[in-house]
Design brief:
By secondary structure, the protein is an all-alpha fold. It has helices at residues 7-21, 29-37, 40-57, 59-63, 94-130, 132-146, 150-161, 165-175, 177-191, 195-202, 207-219, 221-243, 265-270, 276-299, 302-306. It has 15 helices and no strands.
């Protein structure tokens, strides 16, 4: 007597084999952290960024002074016991403004990169997964954005929309997505031809599950690295715009607009407490984030681990 085998039971071994061969993110979290810790500069950068973030979060406690309090009798006084980093052109405490400015500058970097990473991931995933006309349209749009100098466009947008912290984040976020989209598109174009993806299609895996469970987790490593470096770039852009008067507006402090006093040769020569601290904070923040980016890139690179 012949036994009837249902199609579902025929496909069960295939499902089991695909489940066994299912590819996960390149490195487990604990393994990535172990490799990251071996990168000395990355750990130095993580420590520096942690200290800067701690100082920004607890600025009112550490500084102990109101960053907006004006004292005209203390006009550009040098460092003293009452003002460890001196005062600015309005008699405001430089240390307090420096720590509070860290909140603004670091927040701009984080939120601007979050905006353009989200846009880049969505558009890159659509282009890489569907290909064809969808890919052509999205990539030509990316080419248009990349054809113009991003800094000039950001300055133009900040001028048209008006100088503010929100407009700075919006301008950077809307113009920074093409590199992220290109990275993710290239990864997905390679992954969608792999056996585990073809097998998932064969058994009728839904498109959303295929993208979010099988493709994106395996393609996000270069995106994470690019986003890490992008935070440092966004901080520099914000500092430049604020220095030009197109970013964060006084009296709200940011590291960029604190450097505006350095436009005078007298200040540069005889009042270093007005420009050296914010310049040093920008340099430390950018260096620490770049060190972290190097460490993340090495930790997520399986070929480097094999060597």
């Amino acid at each position: 007597m012949s036994r009837t085998v249902s199609p579902a039971s025929d496909m069960q071994p295939v499902r089991n084999a695909l489940a066994a061969a299912d590819i996960r993110p390149p490195r487990a979290g604990s393994v990535v952290w172990r490799h990251f810790r071996r990168h000395r500069l990355a750990m130095v950068g993580l420590t520096l960024l942690g200290l800067l973030t701690f100082a920004a979060v607890f600025a009112p406690v550490i500084a102990g002074r109101d960053p907006f309090s004006v004292d005209l009798s203390a006009y550009r006084t040098g460092p003293s016991a009452g003002h460890p980093l001196g005062t600015d052109s309005a008699g405001r405490d430089v240390l307090s403004r420096l720590l509070h400015a860290g909140r603004v500058s670091l927040s701009v970097g984080l939120f601007a990169v979050s905006i353009y990473t989200a846009i880049g991931v969505i558009l890159g995933a659509l282009a890489g997964f569907y290909g064809g006309k969808v890919d052509a349209v999205i990539m030509r749009l990316a080419d248009v954005f990349l054809a113009f100098p991003s800094l000039i466009i950001i300055i133009t947008m900040a001028s048209v929309l008006g100088p503010s912290i929100f407009n700075v984040m919006l301008a950077i976020g809307l113009l920074g997505w093409p590199p992220i989209a290109r990275l993710l598109r290239g990864e997905l174009l390679s992954l969608r031809e792999r056996e585990f993806v073809q097998g998932a299609r064969t058994i009728g895996c839904p498109t959303s599950r295929l993208i979010f469970r099988h493709l994106l987790p395996n393609a996000m490593a270069p995106v994470i690295v690019a986003a890490t470096f992008g935070i440092a770039y966004a901080i520099l852009i914000e500092a430049g715009l604020s220095f030009l008067g197109l970013g964060v507006q006084p009296p709200t402090p940011s590291w960029g607009n604190m450097l505006t006093d350095a436009q005078s040769i007298v200040v540069l020569e005889s009042m270093p407490w007005l420009w050296l601290p914010p310049g040093l904070m920008i340099a430390l923040a950018v260096l620490s984030i770049n060190f972290i980016g190097d460490g993340v890139r090495d930790a997520l690179d399986p070929h480097l681990h094999q060597r």
